[in-house]
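[DERIVE STRUCTURE TOKENS]
===
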Amino acid sequence: MEKINAIITGVGGYVPDYVLNNEEISRMVDTNDEWIMTRIGIKERRILNEEGLGTSYMARKAAKQLMQRTGADPDSIDMVIVATSTPDYHFPSTASIVIDKLGLKNAFAFDLQAACSGFLYAMDTAASFIQSGRYKKIIVVGADKMSSMVDYTDRATCPLFGDGAGACMFEGSTEDYGLLDSYLRTDGKGLPFLHMKAGGSVCPPSHFTVDHRLHYLYQEGRTVFRYAVTSMSAACGLIAENNGLNKDNIAWVIPHQANMRIIEAVAKRLDLPLEKVMVNIQHYGNTSAATLPLALWDYEAQLKKGDNLIFTAFGAGFTYGASYLKWAYDGSAAAAPVK
């Protein structure tokens, strides 16, 4: 039996209409556009502010566009994986809501939680299912409504995050394309530095937790920044070394969009010009598990068959890693996304 590789055959995406720019943020907390752009690199972010809409709404919009653009028969989808830290509910899974809304009758679905590294982990998970030969078409979605856990009175965190979703179709191929290598790790020491204090089984919701504002994201920025730079840079370097990749044959690096200075550090580690790095943080901010697929969505038209791509991410846990994927089609031939 020929070796089966897992290739990406299409990309979809969705970002909400509402734009929260730095000027509006500066009216909420003591900050300004210059401070945010200098330290983070974010100009604006999209916010899902319609009442009653959660992560599943954005996920299904991205997945629906993906299916339209790839011409996929709903009955042909075997599996849906949704990477998210902001599920609609503790249960059922956000993925189960997505397959119901899309009418996918032959698919099973589950959520994957690895914070901002969620899509990176989900890609490798989907690739393993494809490589088994038992599954043909898998939709992988990265989606997060980060505004649902952001404290808009906290100057340190509220400028960082936005909402959005991106989706990729994974299929099997016997050609030498697809996800070819991954280095994924988790450092459990990250708990004190990036978490939400309440809402889980250790500290269930109560009047006390609400009154003390414990249901918002907490981050110790300097520590997280240091770990992110070190971990993402090292993972990218290892993947490049193991696969004979260098500044001459790497077409693109797709880094998690958390901070422009982190992105620049990763590029420097690989000795790559920023022109070879996908960057859209200025428009969307940190959309957690959605950053990697949204970058593909924005840059798809520039991708060429055979391009060598390195994905890398870092998130709470601490979760981190890098993956090497050889792109399988000319993106310019795909229909332009409707944004």
Remarks:
- Residues 5-176 form a domain with the Peroxisomal Thiolase; Chain A, domain 1 fold (CATH 3.40.47.10).
- The chain has a mean pLDDT of 97.
- Residues 221-242 form the longest helix (22 residues).
